[in-house]
Amino acid sequence: MDSFTHKKQQLYLVLSGIFIVNALLAEIIGVKIFSLLPLIGRDDNLTAGVLIWPVVFVTTDIINEYFGKAGVLRVSYLTVALILFAFGVIYLTTKLPPAQFWLEVNAKDNQGRPFNIDFAYQSIFRQGGGIVVGSIVAFIIGQVLDATVFQGLRKLTGGRYVWLRATGSTLISQLVDSYVVLYVAFFVFGNWSAKQVVNVANTNYWYKFAAAILLTPVLYVAHFLIDRYLGPDDTQGLQSEAAANQSV
Q1: Among the listed residues 64, 84, 90, the one whose alpha carbon sits nearest the alpha carbon of residue 143
Q2: How far is Cα 220 from Cα 226, in angstroms, rounded to an integer?
Q3: What is the reported pLDDT for 15?
Q4: Which of 34, 119, 200, 220 matches a 20 to 30 Å C-alpha distance to 103?
Q5: Does residue 139 contact residue 177 with C-beta atoms inside 8 Å?
Q6: Which of 36-50, 65-79, 168-182 has the highest mean pLDDT?
Q7: What's the sign of the alpha-carbon dihedral 112, 113, 114, 119?
Q8: Max Cα–Cα distance, the chain, nearest Å
Q9: Which phi and psi angles does 54 have, rounded to 5°?
Q10: Would strands 45-47 and 33-35 be described as parallel, antiparallel, or unpaired?
Q11: Predicted TM-score (pTM) of this structure
C-alpha cells in the first residue's frame, strides 16, 4: 500500500468516526426538549440533539469535498444501521428486570423524595418508534439532499468558494431535516400540535442556520490541516476524483 492510499484511508476513517459518533449521540439525546428562555430571555425550545448537529454537517461537507457524494452516502447508510442497532440494544435493556438492591439504594432522590430509578431509565431511553422513524427518515433525506446540493454548487462554481457550497448545502438540507423529523416523530406518531412542531422546528433551524455561518472558519481550518496532511498534489487529485465521481 502506497503512502497516499494509506493517508486517504486514514482520513476517511477519522472523518467517518467523527460523523458516526456525533450523529448517534444526537439521535440519543434528541428526546430531550430544552428551553432557551433562561439563556436568551425568549420562550424558544430546542431538541438537545441540535447542539452537536453542526459537527455532523461540517463533517458531511468535508467528506463530500474529498470523497464525493458516494463517500457521504456510504457513511450515512452505515450510520443509519448503527443507529437502529443502538436503539434496539437500548430498548432491550429497558426490558431487563431491575435488581432489587439497585431499586432500594436509589429509592429516594437527593431531597428524600420517592424515586423509581428503573422507571426513570425507561422514560429516558425507551424512545418511541415514531421518534426513531422520524429521525431516520429526516437523516436520510437530509444527507442525500446535502450531498446533492453540495456537488451541484461545486460544479456551478467550478470548484471555487468552499464556503458557498458548504454553507448553502447545509442551509437547504437542514431546512428539510428540521421539519421532517419533528413532524414524523411528534405529530404523525406523537401528540404534538402542528403549532408546537412548527415552533420547535423554527428554533432548531435558525440555530443550525447560525451555526453553519459561525462554523465557516472551522471548515477552512479543517481544509488547511487536511491539505497539509495529504500534500498539495494528492489533495488536488483527491478533490478532482471526488468532483468527478458523484455516483451513489
Answers
A1: 64
A2: 10
A3: 95
A4: 34
A5: yes
A6: 65-79
A7: negative
A8: 66
A9: -55, -35
A10: antiparallel
A11: 0.83
Considering only CA atoms, give the Rg of the chain. 21
- Matching residue, cell 476524483: 241
Q: Could you tell me the three cell numbers for 116?
A: 423509581
Q: How confident is the model at residue 223 (pLDDT cuts 50, 70, 90)?
A: confident
pLDDT at 79: 94
Question: What is the b/e burial string over 21-37, where b = at least 16 CB atoms within 10 angstroms of the residue's CB?
Answer: bbbbbbbbebbeeeeee
pLDDT score of 114:
92
Q: CB-based contacts of 210: which residues, under 8 Å, 6+ apart?
A: none
125-174 pLDDT per residue, tens: 876 667 778 888 888 888 888 888 888 888 887 777 777 888 888 888 88
pLDDT digits (tens, 9 = 90+) for 184-221: 877 887 778 888 888 888 888 888 888 888 888 888 89
CA distance 170 to 111: 45
